[in-house]
Amino acid sequence: MEIIDLHTHSTVSDGTYTPCGLVELASKRNIRAFALTDHDNVSGLEEAKKAADKVGIELIPGMEVTMNFHGRKIHVIALGFAVDSPDFQELYRKIRINKEEKIDKLIEGIQRCGVPITLEMVQKHSSGQMDQYTVMRCLVSMKIEKKIQPLWDKYIDPIAADLGMNENVTPEEAFPILHKAGAVVSLAHFHKKIGLKDLSREAQADAIRELRHLGLDGVERWYPSYSEDDMVFLQSMIDELGMCSTGGTDFHGLNRSGVEMGTGINGNISIPYSALEAINEYKRMEGLK
Question: If you count Cβ atoms within 10 Å of the first and of the last residue's Cβ in the chain, which end, N or C, has fewer?
């Protein structure tokens, strides 16, 4: 069976493979198509597209967009959009300003927590843009925590909040613009903290219904850490609301050990190419070009 992976990360955000390296890995793993969905960043797409074309892999332009929704953060995967669309570029500029401004102040705040980090150290981890993920990559290299999440919880997120750097776009603002650019927008890993974790099932269902009303096209039906109950719940929401099914491994390379591109954890994911065909049919029916 030909497989796909619609949720991957590169060194542009918080992965350990370069965009070109992801293409090489996809080729080795016989993945027919994949989406590069770096966090709030599309700067790796051009490199990935050139490499993918050379080896005959279908690359879907993507981005994992951080949004504010009723006092919590959610991640939304945007797939298959025109990066050069004026509508998308206007939204993207706003997103990047939020991610890139006050980085020097963020570093100073982390220094006050006793971490010997400097602007010069962070610059060595830049892929051309200095943002919160660049700071995260530097902190990872310093090996002050065994896992990545504490770096966000202890340092980056609280200091960024104090600096007013945690203002993200909203679904009401972003969904119409992403649709104009041709994107399908899908709720990522609903069961996580950046998602709908800690809500009751009924509250999660109501949240997804509201997001659907605002323009959400789909949910990640496949994800490595879903329980059986999670998958049953999501399928019920997909059926109820007429949404499309997306999904992927959320591959981060060495930054998320045990999760393999295309197959997840111990082979627990296998998304058929027909799922991408169904998404493209949904786009056609919805007039998303």
Answer: N
